[in-house]
Amino acid sequence: MTKKERYSFVIDYFKAHNPHAASELQYTNAYQLLVAVILSAQCTDKRVNMVTPPLLEAYPTPNDLKNATVDDIYHYIKSVSYPNNKAKHLKGMATVLVDEFNSIVPEDIDNLQKLPGVGRKTANVIASVIYNKPTMAVDTHVFRVSKRIGLVTNAKTPLETERQLIENISEEFIPVAHHWLILHGRYVCTARNPKCEQCGIDKVCQYFEQKTKQSQTV
Ligand code: SF4
Q1: Helix axes of 30-39 and 120-129: crossing angle, nearest 10 degrees
Q2: Quick one: average pLDDT of 173-186?
Q3: Looking at ligand 1, which atom is closest to the CA of residue 202?
Q4: Cα 144 to ligand 1 centre (Å)
Q5: Which atom from ligand 1 is nearest to the alpha carbon of 198?
Q6: C-beta 149 within 6 A of ligand 1
Q7: Which one, of 18, 24, 5, lies nearest residue 177 by Cα?
Q8: Which CATH architecture has domain 3-21+136-217?
Q9: What kind of fold does domain 30-129 have according to CATH?
């Protein structure tokens, strides 16, 4: 099977089975998504969705968040992972957003990365989800799943994975493909025990092929 055929099968499968895949984070505007994505680093979306409603009710605009103290913010987010750092990042992000971007979340990846707490992955999520740009955020699920299936070859870093995925997926499907791979990694191709028997793309998956060969030789 060629790489092109593998991509084509995987995209057709997800198009048919999850055409409207979307983020599981709750938000109603770009500012809210930015807050949620910063909080979601090494934390579950479920936990973040419990924390954001009271936080955003207290600080509904970037300016409100800018004027909060780090201790105030900490109080709302203490149940997520790394709350001290994230409280500092949220205040820093809001300050730069207000002072340098007139409270408008930028579209551009480089400008997004000027916001404290926003790395390449978060910037790609915002550019893709809010502005529908063909950017691919590579989190732990996307990194693992792309490798297992064989969508990427010898990619040692998230950036290499991002480049290979962008190169091989047509532009119109890049934003949704990010969600396909995350959701597949979260619910089917899980880190410890991938549910290959429930997986609809097993016939093109390199990991599954190797696993099958190994079990036949023992
Ligand atoms: S066959 Fe197994 S390893 Fe391959 S994508 Fe599906 S769940 Fe993941």
Answers
A1: 150
A2: 95
A3: 1
A4: 10
A5: 7
A6: yes
A7: 18
A8: Orthogonal Bundle (1.10)
A9: Endonuclease III; domain 1 (1.10.340)
CA-based Rg of the chain, rounded to a whole angstrom? 19
Mean pLDDT of 169-194: 95
Token readout for 158 is 């998230």
pLDDT of residue 218: 64
Q: How confident is the model at residue 216 (pLDDT cuts 50, 70, 90)?
A: confident
Q: What is the pLDDT of residues 85-123, one digit of tens each?
A: 999 999 999 999 999 999 999 999 999 999 999 999 999
- The 3-state DSSP class for residue 115 equals coil
Q: Where are the domains of the chain?
A: 3-21+136-217, 30-129
Could you say which of 121, 195, 203, 213 is catalytic? Answer: 121
CA angle at 152 for the pair 151 and 153, rounded to the nearest 5°? 130
The chain-wide mean pLDDT, for the chain, equals 96
Residue 69: is its pLDDT beyond 90?
yes
Would you list the DSSP string of 28-45? Answer: SSHHHHHHHHHHTTTS-H
Q: Are 137 and 122 in contact (CB under 8 A)?
A: yes
The tokens 């950017």 sit on which residue?
A: 135
